[in-house]
Fold this protein.
Amino acid sequence: MIRYRRNFVPGGTYFFTVTLRDRRATTLVDHIAALRAAFATAHAERPFTTDAIVILPEHLHALLTLPDGDAAYPARWRRVKSLFTTAVAKTDPAIRPNANGRYMLWQSRYWEHTIRDADDFARHIDYIHFNPVKHGLVTSVRDWPHSSFHRFVRQGVLAPDWGAETAVTATFGEPR
């Protein structure tokens, strides 16, 4: 069995990719209110800052900063996943427990990357916001409703047409 090494930096900022088991599912956007409620509850119980986020049909990307002295992001993700699964299972008959009584909605692991510096932070925000275009869900970043991109526009950080032309050829640090 592979042993994953997680990097725990108290007060750190992390990029996450969290995915459903069924990569063809649309569960996250179909139940966006339940996902928002799960995040709100997890945040109320163990605060964190959501620097940027995008919710796609079967996965999400998030850039989160934890409070000083706190590196317990696994507990936060466990809570978000659990709350979301419980809420969705109550309303969606397709979400059922297996023979062991476990819901197999989420992949058991997730991708985590510790943000190193301001450039790394900026690249990951761009990656998050451009992701719906990358996956062919929309042709313009502004057309995807489940993204912190809209908050960045309201705050004047990004222009409403950000990513319309030049970002299409950008790699955002990914290997070619």
